[in-house]
Write a structure and sequence with these properties.
171 residues, alpha/beta, Rossmann fold, five-stranded parallel β-sheet, globular
């Protein structure tokens, strides 16, 4: 029984890589933002507009708690999920992969109107935000992979070669 958790800033490829990775492993795939949207019956942008970041983080933490017992799955976490005090419990026993990308690549990959905390920010502003979260990503990651110079299917292949199920776990 295994679980792979993908962390990293917005637009680093967590969802794209996660879907492919899960398919290659024959596992289920979960995206915490999508799961939170389903539970709230509104988009992440709507949740932020109505309840603010604090309200979104509460819903996101509840989603993490619901997904925590799942095994044989790949879970793509929202970029700020590592900020939750409960993230440590969620990540325990999982292989945690930190997907990284340069601020310039993140800025070019962002789709306007989809990321409340990154929308409209310059690469320099994104770099500052990414730097603030780095300590959290570094704390939980058992594997780190840059997605700057590879397509999602290439990143998934690299991870499969790097991660042997049950080989590396947080906690």
């Amino acid at each position: 029984m295994e679980k792979i958790v993908l962390i990293g800033y917005a637009a680093t490829g967590k969802t794209s890589v996660g879907r492919i990775l899960a398919e290659k492993l024959g596992w289920e795939f979960f995206d915490t933002d999508a799961q939170t949207e389903l539970r709230a019956r509104m988009s992440v942008m709507e949740i932020f507009a109505r309840y603010g970041e604090e309200g979104f983080r509460l819903l996101e933490t509840q989603t993490l708690q619901l997904l925590a017992p799942r095994t044989n799955c790949v879970i793509a976490c929202g970029g700020g999920s590592v900020l939750s005090p409960q993230f440590e419990d969620f990540a325990r026993g999982a292989t945690v992969v930190w997907l990284q990308a340069s601020a310039e690549n993140v800025a070019s990959r962002l789709v306007a109107g989809t990321r409340p905390l990154a929308d409209g920010k310059s690469a320099e502003e994104l770099a500052r935000e990414m730097d603030k979260r780095e300590q959290f990503y570094r704390r939980y990651a058992t594997v780190t992979l840059s997605t700057d110079d590879c397509l999602p299917h290439e990143a998934a292949e690299k991870l499969i070669k790097t991660i042997r199920p049950n080989a590396m776990r947080y906690g």
